[in-house]
Design brief:
Helix content: 40-55%
Number of helices: 10
Shape: elongated
Strand order of the largest sheet: 5-4-9
Strand content: 15-25%
Amino acid sequence: MFPLSLFHRKKPAAAPSVLISAERQQHRDFSLLRQDETAQQLYRQLRYAVPIIDAALSKIIRLTGSYSVIASDPSVQKQLDAFVQQIPCDFSSQGLQSFTDRFLDSLLTCGNALGELLVDSRRRYITGLHCAEPDLVCLKPGKSGRAFFLRMTDGSPEERPLPHPERLLFCALHPPAGQIYGVSVLHGIPALCSILLRIYECIGQNYDRIGNIRYAVTYHPSNDPTERAYTTERVKAIAKEWAAGMRDSSSGEVRDFICAGDVDIKVIGAENPLLDTEIPVRQLLEQIVSKLSIPPFLLGLNWSSTERMSTQQADILTSELEYYRRLLTPVIQQICTAFLRTIGSTAEISVEWDTINLQDETEQALARLHTAQAMQIEQNLQKN
């Protein structure tokens, strides 16, 4: 069974008085500003261009944690566990956890997630799971619920209804009122990222122009007519020896530059230090991190924060992870319920998630210990 089988400026001339002119190149190939990209392509470009965004989303997926699927009928629990652990996912991984991780990745990045149950039409058995691009289908309200339509890849406005919508898994993140499609967590970030990337590009250009030290060697001939007559030959000799000295210095050999006459040597750009970009870059990163609801210390950002502030940030992240879990739970139940129906079971499904924060589990254990100690003390007092 193949996945989603139906988705088949003009440059001015140099002035005559300038001996050597350096062209200032500006590479502004910002793929984030291309107008022909869809929203999903734009958000994926963001994850590629700004590594901190990709790191934040990857941490959210991992911190969401794992889960256990429990059937109301204990007799089918063994078969259900084997299905959860061994079901193929996109022919490259195995297990329901792998599918939900990819499903959540698409949900966070694109604002929508689309999956499919791969069913053997003859045996009526689920053979695998597939996580597809959400923009492959168009979702519209129908008479009996949601209706899925296939979008044509050739750009034509024609839409073909899909015959088995019950096999599709769709989830939307933060859908606006009256809307079907959700909104990505990266919504609003592209404008900030374009500024951030422009700053980084300028830093690279400045280091190309200033960081790699270049020298301006100027020869000032005296008023002696004899010396002025040989100015060109002396300039060529100085240039030759200077180039030889630079080549030898690159191999570790130190050579002194000795010449007769008035020769001035300066470092180009030494009086123009690089701009300090720490404050604007941090302001942009603060906006991005606040949008992703990730504590800065989880991303390796050493920003000043107190212990109480870190605890509050962890609590905010925990509430975000709980929200993502509530979105994934119906999808997991739909998949496992479909499996149980294929084996003839009418059992119900419940999903039990692991504890998000080990610190919370430790505090609960300490609370139970203190309660047990208090009860023991009360019992000893009653005996006495």
